[in-house]
Structure formats: C-alpha cells, structure tokens
From TrEMBL:
The keyword Membrane applies. It comes from Posidoniimonas polymericola. This is VWFA domain-containing protein. It holds the Pfam family VWA. Residues 165-235 form the VWFA domain. The chain crosses the membrane at residues 29-50, 62-84. PANTHER family: BLL2462 PROTEIN. SUPFAM superfamilies: Class I glutamine amidotransferase-like, vWA-like. The lineage of its organism: Bacteria, Pseudomonadati, Planctomycetota, Planctomycetia, Pirellulales.
Length: 765
C-alpha cells in the first residue's frame, strides 16, 4: 500500500498526466435489490433489539445495533469484492496528416508559369507567423504528424521539431494517395487512445486504399473529429485530347482529302480551341477550325485539304494549347497519306439515253483526269463508231472489267446481259477493289434486279424490301446529306463543311426518287429524302454506300442530279460526281500498294481502353482471319477478325479488358509470323485523372464526424473551431483490492466480539 501511494505521488508531479481513482465492485445484484437488502437488514436489526427484553437502555441497545449493522456492512463489502480502480489521464492526442502524393505536385497555374505547387502552398501556410498554428496546437494537445502517399510515414521525431520536419516535406509525382488508410492508422485504438481531432492537408484525391467515406465512418466510431484543409483549384485544369484519326491512306492528286478525328475536352475552358492541319515539318497551315466546347465533351472534327502534288506525306492535326493545360502532348494526331497522280478510268453504262447519262457523259468527257468509256443499250447501230468514248458491248468478264476503276450503271436492263455478268462484277469489286455506282431509274433499277443473287449481294440495300415498280408522281425535294455523308469528300461542295451544308440547302430541287429498299446492316446512309419515310418511320435513303470486299458500291435513288447545274453551270454537279468517282477508285489504288499488314492505332493504351487491331489484306478478298494475342509472360489467346464497316479490305477486332503489360499481336498461320504489331497497356493516371480539389468528398467526411472543411485561405479559422482539449485516459493503473485485506476481516471479528462482550455485560443472550 505504501509503495503504491509513493507511485501516485510521483505521477502527480508530472504536469502532462494525473491519476483518477474510483471505487469499483463485482456486485452482481441490481441496485434496487441491493437497497432493499440493506434496508431490510437494518430494519431487522433494529426490530430485534427494540423487541428484546433487557435491562439495557435504549442507547445501549442502539450501540449494539450499530455493531451488528457494521458487521453486516463489512460482510457485504467482502462479498462485493470492493476495490479502487485508477486511470492515468493526460493531454488529448491530435493528428496531422500531410498529403505528399503525385497530385500535390500540381501548380494550379497556367502552363509554364512560375507558381508554387500544392505542397509548397501547404508548407507556406503552416510555417507562416513562425509556425504559430503548429506550436499552438502542440501546447494544447499531444500532437502526432504523418505524411501519406503510397505509404504513411511519421513526420518529425524527438530530434526534429515538427516545423522543421514540415519544411522538409516534398511530394512524389509518381506516387498514389492513400488518405483513407492514413486516417485509419491514426484513429486505430489498438495503438493507443484515439485522437480527439485529425487535421488533413490535402486536395482530397484518394486514389488507392480505403475511401474517405469509409475512413470517416471509422473515425466517427472512434470519436475522432476530422478537419480537412483543401488545397487546389476547384475546377479541373483543361485538357484537350485528339484521338481516333481517320483519313484515306491513298488518294489522287486534287482529291478533297477529309481528315477526321475526335476532340475530347476535359475541364472548363475559358477560350475557344483552334485546330490546324499542316504537313509534318512544314509550318504552313493548310486548314483550320475554331470550336468552343462546353464543359467535358466529345465531338467529331473534320478538316479538308486538296493535295496538288504527288508524294508520300504525313499530315498533322493539332489543337493549340489553351491556358492552364498541363499535357499538350496529346493535342495532336497524325495521318500517313500517299498522293498519286493518275487518271480515273470510268465506264458509264445506261439502258437508254436518260438526261443523267447525257449530262454526265458530257461532263466526264471534258475532264482531263477522267478516262471515260460509255455503253448505251438502246443506241443506234453506228453509235459505237461515231462516239470515241463508246464501246460496242458491255464488258462481261473480269479481265475486261479490269481496265476500269469505276463502273456506273444507270437503269441498265439486266435481261440483255448474261447472268455471269453480275458474278464477274461482284469479283471486280470484292477482289480487285473496283467501285460501282448504281443509279435508279423508272424502268429497271432496282425492280428488275431482284432475281440475280450476285447483284443482290452487291447492292447496299435489301432489294426484297423494295416496292413493286411504279412511276411515282413528280415532286420537288432537296437532297438532305446525313452527318455521316458530310464527313466524306463527295458531299464537300464548298471549301468548308459549313459552306458545303449551306450549298446543299440552296441547290435546285430534284424531281423523282425511287425506293431502293431497306439499307443492309453494314451499309451507310449518306443522304435521305426530306419528307418520305420507310415503313418503319425512318427517312427514305437516297444515297447508300457499302464496302464490299476491297471495293465499294454506291446507290443513287434518283436520276436527276443534272438539275444541280441550273443557274450555276457544272460547278456543283461536277464537284459531286468527280469527287464521288475518285472516292470509289481508291480501292484500285490500294490493290497493289501493300501486302499483309497488321496495325494498332497507338503504341500505348490505358487499362480499360479497347485496343482495335486491324489487318489489311493484299487484295481485300479475305473475309475472315484470326490473330494471336501474346501477353508478355501470359498465355496466348486467339482472336477472330471481322470485316470493317468503314474501311474496305480491312479486317478488325477490339481487344477488351486487357491487364497492364506488354503485348504482341501476330497473324495466325505458319507463314505469317512476320505480320505482327506490338503495344502496351498501362495503368490509368489515377493521381492526374482528376486534378480539381475534391471539396465535396472532404466536406462530407468532415460533417460525418462533427468536424469541418476549410479552404487553404480559411485555415486561420481552424484553431478557434477545434474541440476543447479535454484530458483523456492514457492507461489503467493496478487496482487496489479493499475487500481482501486483513483489517477488513479484523473489523468483522472486532465488531462481533465487541457486540458479544457488551451483551454479556447486560446478561443478554
């Protein structure tokens, strides 16, 4: 007992701690039952001594009763195992957490500006006024500090004052943020009493480990209040990304070359985005476009250029960096294009001399870039000898068709040609990369062609769904290009897309259109009727395209495009037809250009992005193939390729859900090992994917625990709003057992003996 008292005196001398002692028992009865038992015992003793016959006076009997009650009381104390329980208390714990992850290296200022990083701003705030915030908290609390990135580390020690340790903090740009785990480690009761409050200096981005909400729940259960001081911009810095480049790889000189891409914008922009097209290594701007995206958005872009010299070129579309953009490297896409100087060889075949045939023949015959041949079924006997462009018979064999790049069929009577003509024409398109244009007319096309299987396969529409032939009444309507059609060069009648759209709205109306049937699933509807609809309610297609093997087929549901010449001459009529013929001749340009080629769009992808693999075949006639996907250190996987809906002669497939690592794709087959492509998949930039301050997440976590959220410039309010520092139990002291003492037993014996002696003196039993 003496030693224990000396220990208590030594602890009381220390200013940081003191001891608190309380009585404790192991009495298991309910309090009300205990009161009843004590009351009944006292009442019974009083009753017995009051009723007992004895010469002793009332005071003498009261003394005897008190001795009896004292005996009972000491017995009850021993039965309850009464003891003294002590705890040592001290200053409450307090936690500092400093975020040193990659996102704290962001400057939140315009690119290239000399501005402090987020961690620099935190250090400056903590160290201002001689680190008064740190020292005042240390005067009231037992403060601990930790930094957090990939791991949580202690800041400062007995040899390094906290202000000096804070001044030495630095952020690692390659690290993740485990804010939730750091909060958990501080409020974990297994390491000691939970801190009364934890203040976290961060941008609120937790990219690994437990979430802020889960950590807030743990802090609330531990009785710890969370306070967040947020640093960083509340809006994500802008980022412009150009992706999905699309352009023809082989074109003619003077073709209108359409360069397409997807513009993705992240964050808020305060200025328009200017896009420029130029040749790599040449600063001259060939085309430009200015857009004003709103918020996070994605939209297709298109720039046009007409190359005038043959050669191999690399074109670049680049978005000029905007204020505040951190990563301008993703602002560009490139295109490799071969420009050829060659004539387009065209066969113009018609069943009868309709006006569309006459005007188009006259136009193409005057164009030096077109080598024209014509065939007219209903013609005079001397037509072939009097017209230099005329041929006596329609080329019915593949070898005869090989002298042409594009064949235009204008309401040709199929009954006057052998059935084999259509299979040869099908091979001309699918295997040789030729182009075919089908122009509907009032007599034969499309109705007379339904019974020819090869032609049905060639047609971009389902001929079975076309209605029975009937001459529709004359009507006036404007061709309406679809957004997909406006992406192609054929519909670019002006120098820009906006100008072209305006021209299409002002052209002379057409006067007749046929119903070609429903477009096939892989077909592309390039223009529609403004008023008429199909049975399912969609606009009636007027221009429909389909890639067929390595070539392309285009169908016109009208035969009066010559009306576009009214008041303007050949300018728009010629531009549309020449560009369309050139576009359909591209398949022939590519036929002998390359052998087997396996491609991926980029060399590096983020995890979760689909990887599109493309296979270019030598003649475009291959309809199916497979590739082997070989991950580094993993099992091989076979992937089947399917024909592309937009690229003739190309097979493709998307690879999804790939893990991070390096991959090799090669063409399946014993003789195809050299046909391969490589790419890598990397983890997404978690720390830099969202750079705006997560004020909503920090505010919600603070409110859940009874704390508060402050912006960095409001941090001066923190000290006044912290909870009052209340001393907290630090450890339990060894208990002092009162019931198991010799003097307790001596007291019981003494009371019993005294009562017995006093009773004998009065001759009481």
């Amino acid at each position: 007992m003496t030693n224990h008292l000396l220990t208590l005196l030594a602890q009381a001398a220390a200013p940081e701690t003191d001891a608190v002692w309380r009585l404790r028992t192991h009495w298991t009865f309910a309090p009300w039952l205990t009161v009843v038992l004590i009351t009944a015992s006292v009442a019974l003793v009083a009753y017995c001594y009051a009723r007992e016959r004895t010469p002793a006076g009332a005071a003498y009997r009261a003394l005897l009763g008190l001795l009896r009650v004292a005996t009972i009381a000491m017995i009850l104390v021993m039965l309850s195992e009464l003891l003294l329980a002590g705890t040592r208390s001290g200053r409450p714990r307090f936690g500092w957490i400093f975020d040193t992850s990659g996102s704290m290296t962001v400057t939140d200022a315009a690119r290239g500006a000399d501005a402090p990083t987020r961690i620099d701003k935190v250090k400056a705030k903590l160290l201002e006024n001689d680190a008064s915030l740190l020292t005042q908290v240390d005067d009231q609390y037992d403060a601990y500090a930790r930094s957090v990135d990939d791991v949580s580390k202690a800041v400062g020690d007995a040899d390094t004052p906290l202000p000096d340790a804070v001044a030495a903090l630095s952020a690692d740009p390659d690290s993740m943020s485990r804010l939730g785990d750091a909060i958990d480690s501080l409020v974990d009761r297994s390491t000691g009493p939970a801190p009364q409050a934890v203040v976290v200096w961060t941008d609120g981005r937790s990219t690994a480990g437990r979430s802020l909400s889960a950590a807030a729940d743990a802090a609330r259960r531990a009785g710890t209040r969370l306070y967040f001081v947020g640093v960083g911009a509340e809006q994500s810095p802008p980022d412009i990304v150009l992706s999905d480049p699309l352009a023809d790889e082989v074109v003619f000189v003077d073709d209108i070359l359409s360069f397409g891409a997807t513009l993705r914008v992240k964050g808020a922009l305060n200025e328009p985005v200017r896009l420029t097209l130029r040749q790599e290594g040449d600063s001259r701007v060939l085309a430009d476009q200015t857009l004003t995206p709103v918020g996070d958005s994605s939209e297709p872009i298109q720039l046009l250029h007409r190359p005038t010299e043959p050669g191999d070129y690399r074109y670049v579309i680049e978005a000029l960096p905007v204020e505040g953009e951190r990563d301008p490297d993703n602002n560009r896409v490139t295109f490799d294009v071969q420009v050829r100087k060659a004539s387009v060889r065209v066969l113009l075949a018609a069943g009868y001399p309709l006006y569309e045939f006459r005007y188009l023949k006259s136009l193409l015959g005057r164009d030096s870039t077109i080598q024209l041949k014509t065939y007219l079924q209903e013609s005079d006997l001397d037509y072939a000898t009097s017209d230099q462009t005329a041929v006596q018979r329609f080329p019915m064999r593949r070898g005869d068709l090989d002298q042409f790049d594009v064949v235009v069929l204008m309401d040709l009577d199929p009954r006057l040609l052998p059935r084999s003509t259509w299979s040869e024409l099908s091979d001309f398109v699918s295997k040789d990369g030729g182009g075919v244009i089908l122009v509907a007319g009032s007599r034969y096309l499309p109705w007379s062609y339904k019974r020819f299987e090869d032609f049905r396969a060639l047609s971009p529409t389902d001929l079975d769904s076309a209605p029975i032939a009937s001459r529709s009444p004359p009507e006036q309507f404007l061709l309406r290009p679809t957004p997909l059609g406006m992406q192609g060069a054929s519909f670019q009648l002006g120098d820009s897309r906006a100008e072209s759209e305006s021209i299409w709205r002002k052209l002379t109306p057409l006067n007749w259109a046929a119903d070609l049937g429903e477009p096939k699933p892989a077909a592309q509807v390039l223009a529609t009727h403004p008023n008429r609809t199909t049975p399912d309610g969609r606009p009636l297609p007027l221009v429909v395209s389909q890639y067929f093997g390595s070539g392309q087929v285009l169908a016109h549901a009208f035969d009066s495009s010559y009306l576009w010449r009214k008041r303007v001459g050949d300018v728009y009529f010629a531009r549309y037809w020449v560009q369309t013929l050139r576009r359909l001749a591209h398949g022939r340009l590519k036929r002998d250009d390359r052998g087997w080629e396996l491609m991926v769009e980029r060399g590096e992808y983020e995890r979760g992005e689909p990887v599109r693999v493309r296979l270019r075949t030598p003649d475009g006639g291959v309809r199916s193939a497979a590739v082997l996907l070989q991950p580094e250190g993993g099992p091989e996987q076979r992937v089947e390729l399917a024909p592309s809906a937009v690229r003739p002669g190309v097979l493709e497939a998307d690879l999804n859900d790939l893990a991070a690592g390096s991959y090799r794709v090669l063409l399946a087959g014993a003789d195809s090992q050299a046909v391969s492509a490589t790419f890598s998949v990397v983890n997404p930039p978690g720390e830099f994917a969202q750079l705006e301050m997560n004020s909503a997440g920090m505010r919600a976590a603070a409110e859940r625990t009874g704390g508060a959220f402050y912006k960095l410039d409001e941090a001066d309010q923190l000290l006044a709003n912290l909870p009052e520092a209340q001393r907290v139990p630090i450890e339990s002291l060894p208990p002092i057992e009162l019931w198991n003492r010799w003097w307790m037993l001596a007291g019981i014996c003494g009371c019993l003996c005294a009562e017995w002696i006093l009773r004998k003196r009065k001759a009481m039993l």
